């Protein structure tokens, strides 16, 4: 089971670090492609960022490039989404997802199928 955490209420310009971890230690996230997605009220789910399995190849939505960073801590079996310079438009519920088989590349990462999903964590950015 995936667990997303780290959300909160912050002001514009602040930072948050979201965590995606596995409740079962046998579920080694390094062997999975991980994606972060968000859903704002009244909007469809959007891809935010992703990282391929076993490597540090990453992808970002244009809206977060230069502000968000996805990275793994293999020892902690956690994938993080560091969110800097937050904007009110970043307000959403953020979800992480994992899949052991999907091969991510620039042309498919936003629409790739992810098998496992965690519960969301709310990020609220006030102006």
Could you characterize the architecture of this molecule?
It is a single chain. 0% of the residues lie in helices and 46% in strands. The chain is mainly β. Strands 2, 4, 5, 6, 9, 10 and 11 form a 7-stranded mixed β-sheet that branches. A hairpin with a 6-residue loop joins strand 4 and strand 5.
Q: Keywords, please?
A:
127 residues; mainly beta; seven-stranded mixed sheet; 46% strand
Q: Provide the low-confidence segments as ranges.
A: none
Relative strand content: over 45%
Shape: globular
Q: Compute the average pLDDT.
A: 94
Indicate the topology.
Blueprint: E1 2-5, E2 8-11, E3 16-22, E4 33-39, E5 46-51, E6 58-60, E7 68-73, E8 78-83, E9 92-99, E10 116-117, E11 121-126
Parallel strand pairs: 2-11
Antiparallel strand pairs: 1-3, 3-8, 4-5, 4-9, 5-6, 7-8, 9-10, 9-11
Short description, anyone?
The protein has 127 residues and is mostly beta strands. The protein is 0% helix and 46% strand.
């Amino acid at each position: 089971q995936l667990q997303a955490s780290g959300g909160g209420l912050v002001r514009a310009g602040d930072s948050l670090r979201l965590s995606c971890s596995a409740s079962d230690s046998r579920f080694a996230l390094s062997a999975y492609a991980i994606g972060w997605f968000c859903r704002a009220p009244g909007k469809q789910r959007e891809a935010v960022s992703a990282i391929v399995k076993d490597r540090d190849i990453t992808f970002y939505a244009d809206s977060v490039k230069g502000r968000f960073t996805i990275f793994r801590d293999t020892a902690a079996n956690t994938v993080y989404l560091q969110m800097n310079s937050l904007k009110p438009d970043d307000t959403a519920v953020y979800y992480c997802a994992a899949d052991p088989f999907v091969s991510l590349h620039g042309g498919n990462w936003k629409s790739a199928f992810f098998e496992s999903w965690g519960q969301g964590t709310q990020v609220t950015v006030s102006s």
